[in-house]
Amino acid sequence: MTATTRLRSATLLVNPAARGVGKDFDAARIVRYLQKRDLPTELVIPSSAAEATREASAAAERGDSILFVVGGDGSVRDAALGLAGSETALAAVPSGTVNIWAREAGIPRGLRKSIDAHLEGQSVHMDLGRAGDHCFLLMAGVGWDAKVASQVNHGLKKRIGDIAYMLQAAVAAPRLRPTPVRWVTPDSEVEEELAWMVLGNTRLYGGKIHITGDAVIDDGLLDVVALCPHSLPETLRVAGKLAIGKRDDARMLTFRTPQLHIQTAGIPVQLDGDPVGETPMSFSVDPGA
Questions:
Q1: Would the pTM count as exceeding 0.70?
Q2: How far is CA 185 from the centre of its chain?
Q3: For 254-276, what is each residue's pLDDT tens digit?
Q4: Neighbours of 241 (CB within 10 A)
Q5: Rg, Å, the chain Cα set
């Protein structure tokens, strides 16, 4: 029995604003292809992130076996929020700017290749990160990276992809300073000068760097790395070690936790590369959601 014959029905959700979805994008052709594979498929084209979440929830309520999401990491995250707790599988069809989730999960680029990979693959449960009213598949970033993400020009991002983040980071770097931040976990209370915190649900950061390289996607824990330099030399030293994958530094705190609350107000937060607001904010894991 093939994977396709086990699937009852599907929804194809297309983000019309995604980098890889142009004016000539023919979503109906994908629907026809899936139907030829004996998979009844409904097409939805949401006009907002909130609508994408509602459509994903509707697909789960219909009992669809699988939801294909044509878009980037933001689109996949919006759909994941709607599917949380259901048995409808989330199937990313990478069409965004960076597509980190697709890289992490080994999903090939190209519409046909990615769809076939899902049809011929297996369904597994994974943890879902929670951040306030939002969710994340990959990681949450607090501090410097979130500030950079909030300043990236969206038009430039759509034209040149993740290079836009690198350019903005170079522009912002001279003005970045650590900030006193207080956070609480079930095991500790910490107050430190924080430059940047990553709460990883998966291994890769930005699709390239193994900041939380030991993260496991179904262990019910977030892998946390907090950079807490007190001076410019410490900042340069910690950044250098992080770049080459080392985490043996007194100013680099690493730990695992099922939940973490940042009490300090005004620290920017990003989820899977997209800015979502500021602290105070609580972060946690929804196991196997």
A1: yes
A2: 22
A3: 999 999 999 999 999 999 888 99
A4: 16
A5: 19
